[in-house]
Amino acid sequence: MIAYVRGTVAGVTLSSAVVDVGGIGLELMATPNTLAGLRLGESVTLASSLVVREDSLTLFGFADDDEKQVFELVQTASGVGPKLAQALLAVLSPDGIRVAIAGDDVKSLTRVPGIGQKGAQRLILELKDRIGAPVAARIAAVSATPTWRDQVTQAIVGLGYNVKDAERAVDAVADQAGDAANVGLLLRAALQSLSRA
User: Fold this and answer.
1) In this structure, are 69 and 58 located in the same domain?
2) Coil, helix or strand for 12?
3) pTM attached to this predicted model
4) Residue among 142, 140, 101 nearest 123 (CA)
5) CB 115 within 8 A of CB 88
6) CA-CA to 156 of 20 to 30 Å: which in 17, 36, 124, 139?
7) CATH code, 187
8) Does residue 44 contact residue 19 with C-beta atoms inside 8 Å?
9) For residue 193, is pLDDT > 70?
10) What is the pLDDT of residues 111-160, one digit of tens each?
11) Where is this region: Domain III (predicted)?
12) pLDDT in tens, 19-76
């Protein structure tokens, strides 16, 4: 398995790129979006997936690991080979594919050449439980984490208490926090619980 290819871009066509790796030119099939980001003579690192057939070895290149994972996952659905998986990624982004499958969006999937109504329904049926949430949604969930808990804990630690005491105080006032938690009031309540302890 070739996990990634790092080298100098030696050539770019409409459907592939040639990357010079230690004097050997490796041709990687890629989507137009990936190819658009490549410049002749520049150094590049592409995530890759090697597809082995009876009569050929074909290397597919991707801008990032997320694209590669979706490419490999959609091929586990019946009737989807590497060319169709690449066509999916050419029309929809990895998150676009996740959203279409999770939302039973047959119309978006049928925009891909080679996928008809039945093929789209089969993709949805076979991949819905395995495709996962869109990466953007996961990143938003993680980046939205500086919650009132974090803010109050950091404020208490900033006042000279240790982290364990600060977390205990935050847990003591957690039941007072609603949907729109007032950090100032929660901090005051947490400090009062610390002074009682």
Assistant:
1) no
2) strand
3) 0.65
4) 101
5) yes
6) 139
7) 1.10.8.10
8) yes
9) yes
10) 999 999 999 999 999 998 888 877 665 544 444 445 777 777 877 877 77
11) 144-197
12) 999 999 999 999 998 999 999 999 999 999 999 999 999 999 999 999 999 999 999 9
In this structure, the answer to whether residues 51 and 69 fall within a common structural domain is no
Q: Which residues contact 82 (CB under 8 A, 6 or more apart)?
A: 29, 49, 51, 58, 60, 71, 75
Domain boundary at 27, 44, 63, which? 63
Q: 106: domain range?
A: 65-139
Q: What is the CATH number of the domain that holds 103?
A: 1.10.150.20
Backbone angles phi, psi at 169, to 5 degrees: -65, -40
Task: Tell me if 67 sits within 8 A of 94, measured CB to CB.
Answer: yes
CATH, residue 21: 2.40.50.140
Please give the tally of structural domains in the chain. Answer: 3
The rounded Cα 140 to chain-centroid distance in angstroms is 12
Same domain membership, residue 41 and residue 17 = yes
Q: Which single residue is written with the structure tokens 């050419």?
A: 90
Could you tell me the sign of the dihedral formed by the alpha carbons of 178, 183, 185, 189, in that order? positive
